[in-house]
Give the backbone structure.
Amino acid sequence: MIVIMGAAGATGGATLRSLAALGAPGRALTRDPARLTAGLDARTLARTTVLAADAADPDSLRAAFRGARALFLTMANGPHQVRHELNAVQAAADCGVEHVVKVSAPAAEPDSPVAVSRGHHLIEERLRAGGMTTTVLRPYAFMQKLLLLAPGIAAAGVVHGATGAARCNYVDVRDIGDAAAALLTRPEPAGGVYPLTGGRAYSHRELTALLGDMLGRPVRYLDLSPSKLYAHLVGRAGMPPWLASHVVEIQQLAVAREETPDDTFLRLTGRAPRTLEAFLHENLHRFR
């Protein structure tokens, strides 16, 4: 039995569907079982047990983890992420879980310039100290996050950023799910660290040019200083300050450290990752 935390989120949901496609049984945890169940397709629902659990409640986690062999651990970034993920790590250790596949982030280092990545490093270290086989996925920017740009593109044809000419890796969360499922269903737990990217990195100008060609109208990239981007995200886009800081930090990381595609996904699954062009074409109606 494989437990999936964060099953109601994009990455957890993708992993749940990928496991079902492989015929693997999953135990999906959520605070709202009825809502999650209603959103599952028939094939996934047939292979999935949905249970109520709350990452802030260690007792509910221990009840959900009993009898499980493996745990897929992913949670949305946020102020409580580290505490909640550490609750899950401890509960997994208490219940004898053998293998944990954790979704982390690039630059998960103790002195990382990205605050969220420093938190991921702490969680990774706690996992390794707990004696469980630890497999870490380090995906780059999710293609699905580009949908957050859709309102600004539809209304004004503008994308704001602070990356200059730096290129960013983008990966489809469905590919993260496929990679996680491949690792979770191996006869012997793999362990190790696996970066995940798409097949090509794009600058913001290349991204907006691609969107403009697809839409048949101009889409501009407006490059800002980090401080001006932060002010725009908080004042105009309505982001919480912690999230705006995170966006600025990861964009500045792309400037400081060149991002290039990696072939890990191909080696794990035997196929090429989904392309950004295909993802944008699939969701083009959102940007019109």
